[in-house]
Design a protein that fits this description.
Keywords: Signal. The chain is α+β, with helices and mostly antiparallel strands and 122 residues long. It has helices at residues 16-30, 61-73, and strands at 2-8, 51-54, 81-84, 95-96, 110-118.
């Protein structure tokens, strides 16, 4: 299963504990156990079929990206997340999209884009 994440650049910063809580909730929600995990999707959409757009009004996009990279690099809340190469980059983690602010996703400018795979128990 794949999870693509897009971090938009907010105006204010929430405490990083809020970011950690959100990541833990996402991890719990995605920790699929049988019988619902017998239909794996290895990217039929060309990549992950879902994307996540989350606003953290009081957190900079840089601080949030660093927290996500650090947490996911260690396996995430359930130790089953794996960072994947982002946007054709040779390294895993989030790619810096700020130089491309001329292009946008809808009405949101994209600051960082990354992908993590979550391995289920099955």
């Amino acid at each position: 299963r794949g999870l693509s994440s897009v971090i938009s650049r907010p105006g204010r910063r929430p405490p990083l504990t809020r970011s950690a809580l959100m990541l833990a909730l996402v991890g719990i929600a995605l920790s699929c156990v049988p019988p619902d995990c017998d239909r794996p999707d290895f990217g039929t959409c060309g990549n992950a079929c879902c994307s996540l757009l989350v606003h953290f009004p009081n957190t900079s996009s840089v601080a949030l990206m660093q927290a996500l990279n650090s947490t996911l690099a260690q396996g995430g809340p359930d130790l089953r997340f794996h960072l994947m190469p982002a946007s054709g980059e040779p390294y895993v983690g989030f790619a810096d999209m700020r130089p491309y602010h001329g292009e946008s996703m809808g009405h949101h400018h994209v600051s960082f884009m990354g992908q993590a795979w979550h391995a289920t128990q099955k």
